[in-house]
Amino acid sequence: MLYQITELAQDDIDAAADGFDDLDKADSFISNIHTEFGSIATSIGKGHRRTDLTEHDVYFQTFQKRWSIIFKRERPIIIVRVFPHKMLNPNPWFGPGFI
């Protein structure tokens, strides 16, 4: 396996998919995000730090222009969280319970 998904990240993905009115769109979102996880895992240097948001050793990758995939660069990579961009600001999400 190229990547692992934390329970928190899986909850994020499930919540995002539940937000779609159309089941086909939800299935497409899930399929596409897993494809992106694989791309992150096989691409050297993908992702960027956000020290303005967190001091955790994590990287951020934009997905479909409105989502941030937050991951640890390990082997396999660990998908920590999946957030909509509107939630990305210094807030309690990035505190002790973040990962």
Structural class: alpha+beta
Helix content: 25-40%
Per DSSP E runs of 2 or more residues, the count of β-strands stands at 4
List unreliable stretches of 5+ residues. none
> What does the radius of gyration come to?
13 Å
Share of residues in strands? 15-25%
N-to-C terminal Cα separation, in Å? 21 Å
Average pLDDT taken over every residue: 88
Number of helical elements? 2
- Kindly identify the CATH topology: YaeB-like fold
The CATH architecture comes to 2-Layer Sandwich
Shape: globular
The named CATH superfamily: RelE-like
Order of helices and strands: EHHEEE
Q: How are the strands ordered across the major sheet?
A: 1-4-3-2
Biggest sheet: strands, sense, closure? 4 strands, mixed
Overall CATH class:
Alpha Beta
How many domain regions?
A: 1
Overview of the structural elements:
The longest helix has 20 residues, at 23-42. The protein starts with a strand and ends in a 15-residue tail after the last strand. It is built from 2 helices and 4 strands, in the order βααβββ. Strand 3 (67-72) and strand 4 (77-84) form a beta hairpin. With 99 residues, it is an alpha+beta fold. The protein has a 4-stranded mixed beta sheet. The protein has one domain (3-86): 2-Layer Sandwich (YaeB-like fold). The radius of gyration is 13 Å and the shape is globular.
SSE topology sketch:
Blueprint: E1 3-5, H1 7-18, H2 23-42, E2 59-63, E3 67-72, E4 77-84
Parallel strand pairs: 1-4
Antiparallel strand pairs: 2-3, 3-4
Helix pairs in contact: 1-2
